[in-house]
Design brief:
This protein is α/β, with parallel strands linked by helices. It has 3 domains: about 100 residues, Ubiquitin-like (UB roll) (Roll), CATH 3.10.20; about 140 residues, Aspartate Aminotransferase, domain 1; about 240 residues, Aspartate Aminotransferase, domain 2 (3-Layer(aba) Sandwich). Helix content is about 40%, strand content about 20%. It is built from 17 helices and 21 strands. An 8-stranded mixed sheet has the order 9-16-15-14-13-10-11-12, with helices on both faces. A 5-stranded mixed sheet has the order 2-1-7-5-6. The chain is globular. It starts with a strand and ends with a helix. The protein binds pyridoxal-5'-phosphate (PLP). Pyridoxal-5'-phosphate binds next to helix 9.
Length: about 500
C-alpha cells in the first residue's frame, strides 16, 4: 500500500528535486525508515532519531501527525504532507553540501561505467559503450570531408553560426524526416549539439520544478538525470516486449496523483532494453498524453538501424492533439564526436528552443555541421546507412549466437531486438549486475549494469549488453569472459 509524500519546496532538493514521492508503507515507522533508506539527505532534514522532528509539520490526509493514532497505521491514508515548521528555525540544519547552497545534480552512470572501462589497463572487451564501432567511424572518410570543407570555406567554417543551424543542414534533416513519414520542412528543425542537448532544450522549454515526466523503465539514464536536474519528478513505467506499458502508465499516474507534463520515449530499439514501441502503443501513448494535456518527446537515435521487420511511423506523424518533439542525431550513423543532432517541432516550440540555446552555446559548432553537410552533399548516405545495418546486423547475430552458446542452462535470459545496439540481459534472481561488473572487469569484459537505468525501480539483476563496438571475434571472446565472470558470482 503506498502513500504520496508531498514535499514543500525547500525540501525538494534534498529528495532529488522531487515534489512528491510514492512510498509503500503500511505504517509511520515503515514510512520514516523508507525515507531514511531511500532519501538520506531528506531524512537528515526531516527526521530525528527515526521520527519526524519538531522542525517540520507533517499532515496525514490533513491530520497533524502529533495527534495521529499511536500505532501509526496508514491503511486507507493517501497523502503525507511535509512542511517546514513556521517557528523554531525552518528545517533541520542542512548537510554540509547544502549549507553551501549547492543543490544535488545528477549525471549518468552509463558515462561513469564507460570511464571505468576506459581506465582499465588490462585488455577489456566492452559491451558497455553505445557508440559506433571504429570501422563504422572510419567508413565516413572524415579526414577528406574536413579537408574539403576547410579548403573550400576557410575561416567561415570556423565562425559562429546561426542558432537554428546551417540552413542547408536543416533542410537535409527535414527531408530525412519526411522520407520516414514525418512531413516537415526546415522551419521546424533546430540543429542541436547532439540529441542530448535537444532533450535538455525541451526540458528548459516545457518543464517547471515539480512537473512530472513519464519515462520508460529501464530508461535512458542521461535523460532521466536531465529531467531531475530540471527539478522534475520522474514516473518510471515498465517496458515490455511492446515498449512502454501505456496501460500501466495510466494506472501509475492515477495512483500517484502526479500531473504529467511530458512523456519521454525512445520508440525504436530503446536504450537500454532494445525494445520497440508497437504501433498500438504509440497511438495509446499519444491519447494518454492528450488526456493530460502533456507533450511527448520521442528520441530516436536508432530508428535507421533496423535489421528485421518494417519501420514504424514516428509518433509525431500519427496526427494527434498533443505537441510532439522529435529528436534525432547523427551520432549513431555518422560521427558522435561532432555532436550534431536535432529537434523537430512546431515552429513556435523551435523558436523557444532557439532562445534557450542562445544562452547555452549560441550555435552548434559550424565546422561540425558543415562536415555533416558535406557528407550529405556527396550523396551515398543511404548506401552508407545500409552498410552500417549490415555491419551491426552481423554483430547482433554473432552476439545472439554467443550468448546462446555460453549461457545455455544458466538461467540467464535476453531479449531479441530487431535493430539498434542493445540486448537487455536478465540474470537469475540474486545475481547483482554491479557485483558481476566488478568480477567481469577482472576477467576483461564490461557492460553497463541495470542500476544505471533507473531511479527507484529495481533493475539490479539485469544489464545492458551493447554489440556496437567489439568486432565479431571479440564478441565471441567477450561472451566467454562474461560466462567466466558469471560462474564466479552465481
Ligand atoms: C536514446 C539516446 N538518446 C540520445 C543519445 C545521445 O545522442 P547524442 O550523441 O546525439 O547526444 C543516446 C546515445 O547513447 C541515446 O541512446
Amino acid at each position: 500500500m503506498s502513500v504520496i509524500v508531498r514535499l514543500a519546496t525547500p525540501l525538494r532538493a534534498a529528495a532529488g528535486g522531487n515534489a512528491t514521492l510514492s512510498i509503500d508503507a503500511p505504517d509511520l515507522a515503515t514510512l520514516t525508515r523508507e525515507i531514511a533508506d531511500r532519501y538520506p539527505e531528506l531524512a537528515a532534514r526531516v527526521l530525528r532519531d527515526g521520527e519526524f522532528g519538531r522542525f517540520v509539520n507533517v499532515f496525514i490526509d490533513g491530520e497533524d501527525v502529533r495527534f495521529f493514532s499511536a500505532d501509526g497505521d496508514l491503511s486507507g491514508k493517501r497523502t503525507v504532507e511535509i512542511l517546514p515548521a513556521m517557528s523554531g528555525g525552518a528545517v533541520a540544519p542542512l548537510p554540509e553540501q547544502s549549507a553551501r547552497r549547492e543543490h544535488e545534480v545528477f549525471g549518468s552512470f552509463i558515462d561513469e561505467t564507460i570511464g571505468i572501462v576506459a581506465r582499465q589497463t588490462r585488455d577489456t572487451v566492452s559491451f558497455a559503450v553505445g557508440s559506433p564501432s571504429r570501422e563504422a567511424l572510419e567508413l565516413v572518410g572524415a579526414d577528406d570531408l574536413t579537408a574539403t570543407v576547410l579548403q573550400r570555406e576557410g575561416a567561415s567554417a570556423l565562425g559562429y553560426g546561426i542558432t537554428e543551424g546551417e540552413p542547408e543542414l536543416r533542410a537535409v534533416v527535414a527531408a530525412g524526416a519526411s522520407a520516414r513519414g514525418l512531413e516537415t520542412d526546415a522551419s521546424e528543425v533546430l540543429i542541436s549539439a547532439g540529441a542530448l542537448q535537444a532533450i535538455d532544450l525541451a526540458c528548459r522549454v516545457y518543464l517547471r520544478p515539480g512537473d512530472a515526466v513519464v519515462v520508460e523503465s529501464p530508461g535512458f539514464a542521461n535523460a532521466l538525470s536531465a529531467f531531475r536536474n530540471h527539478g522534475a519528478t520522474v514516473l518510471e513505467v515498465p517496458v515490455d516486449g511492446e515498449g512502454l506499458d501505456v496501460g500501466e502508465a495510466s494506472r501509475l499516474i492515477r495512483r500517484s496523483g502526479a500531473r504529467p507534463r511530458m512523456f519521454f520515449v525512445v520508440p525504436n530499439f530503446q536504450n537500454p532494453s532494445g525494445e520497440t514501441l508497437s504501433l498500438a502503443r504509440r497511438e495509446s501513448l499519444l491519447a494518454l498524453a492528450a488526456s493530460h494535456d502533456a507533450i511527448v518527446v520521442e528520441d530516436d537515435p536508432y530508428g535507421l538501424l533496423r535489421y528485421r521487420g518494417a519501420d514504424l511511423p514516428p509518433l509525431a506523424s500519427l496526427g494527434s492533439r498533443v505537441d510532439v518533439v522529435s529528436i534525432g542525431t547523427f551520432s549513431k550513423t555518422f560521427l558522435p564526436g561532432l555532436r550534431v543532432g536535432w529537434a523537430i517541432a512546431a515552429t513556435d516550440t523551435i523558436r523557444r528552443m532557439t532562445k534557450v540555446k542562445q544562452t547555452m552555446d549560441s550555435s552548434t559548432g559550424t565546422l561540425a555541421q558543415r562536415i555533416v553537410l558535406e557528407f550529405h552533399r556527396r550523396g551515398g548516405v543511404e548506401a552508407h546507412v545500409g552498410r552500417l545495418r549490415e555491419l551491426y546486423r552481423h554483430k547482433q547475430e554473432r552476439a545472439r549466437t554467443a550468448l546462446a552458446r555460453e549461457f545455455a542452462g544458466t538461467g540467464v535470459t535476453w531479449n531479441d531486438p530487431d535493430g539498434g545496439f542493445y540486448f537487455w540481459v536478465r540474470l537469475p534472481r540474486g545475481v547483482d549486475a554491479r557485483k558481476l561488473l566488478d568480477v567481469a572487469l577482472e576477467e576483461g569484459v564490461a557492460f553497463v549494469p541495470g542500476q544505471a537505468f533507473a531511479i527507484d525501480r529495481d533493475h539490479s539483476n539485469a544489464l545492458r549488453f551493447s554489440i556496437s563496438a567489439p568486432s565479431p571475434e571479440r564478441i565471441d571472446e567477450g561472451v566467454r569472459r562474461l560466462r567466466r565472470a558469471f560462474d564466479r558470482v552465481a
